[in-house]
Design brief:
Blueprint (H helix, E strand, L loop, with lengths): L1 H7 L15 E3 L2 H6 L3 E11 L5 H11 L8 E8 L1 H4 L4 H12 L5 E10 L7 H28 L5 H9 L1 H9 L5 H27 L1
Parallel strand pairs: 1-3
Antiparallel strand pairs: 2-3, 2-4
The structure holds 2-acetamido-2-deoxy-beta-D-glucopyranose (3 copies).
Amino acid sequence: MISIFFSLLIIGLSVGAEDLPPLFDIEDYYSCESQQGVYCKVDINLQANNEASGLAQEIKISLADKHKFNRSSLHRMICIAKETYQNRTVEEYLTDLSKRKLERFNVSLTVANLECNEDLPFQFYDVFTIIFCVSYLMMVYQSYDVRRDDLKTPVSKYDKWFKIFSMRHNWRAIVRTNTNSDYVNLKSLDYKIFVIGYKVSTKFHKEV
Ligand SMILES: *[C@@H]1O[C@H](CO)[C@@H](O)[C@H](O)[C@H]1NC(C)=O
Ligand SMILES: *[C@@H]1O[C@H](CO)[C@@H](O)[C@H](O)[C@H]1NC(C)=O
Ligand SMILES: *[C@@H]1O[C@H](CO)[C@@H](O)[C@H](O)[C@H]1NC(C)=O
């Protein structure tokens, strides 16, 4: 059910420029728990080195509009195997990892708001997952919004929401080939939410 809901919300997801790092990414924390990894929530703040790059432009646009997600900050929930960061701190490890992953975007970055489950119980992350998902859906909605702006067609708020749930519109959106990273990511997020939802519900049933 949850999965179907999120599938429906995949709609019209084409986020302006094609080549941008995804704003959100969540790794599965139940498998992290079972492999005794450290699960961390982290923001990666970006500073584009090349003002002319697509990412730099996108950041500029997002900062100018308070209704848009701040593209200069990426949000991640990451599982780290204990042996991978060894003598480094988690922060140093994540900084290195992010630099490697974002190399092609030519950015300087800093890691911020790092919280790991060494200090917090795993249950705490359920709440974050929900917040993440809601944020993600808002971004999807926003992406749709961006496209409407391009078309210079005035539409009411309600009209937009109707479009989001419209079969015809959804069908067109699904038919349109979409390979951008946010879309691909959302598809896997959809699956992860389904798995997490399933695990939470079975856990709940066991306890009851
Ligand atoms: C990154 O951007 C700077 C500033 O525009 C430029 O000098 C440099 O060559 C770029 N590096 C890469 C790897 O593209
Ligand atoms: C966007 O995010 C960056 C990094 O977190 C922050 O420094 C900046 O103030 C934010 N800008 C706005 C307009 O929220
Ligand atoms: C961690 O250890 C490796 C060798 O095992 C060494 O090359 C590296 O410099 C060390 N890093 C830090 C931050 O101490």
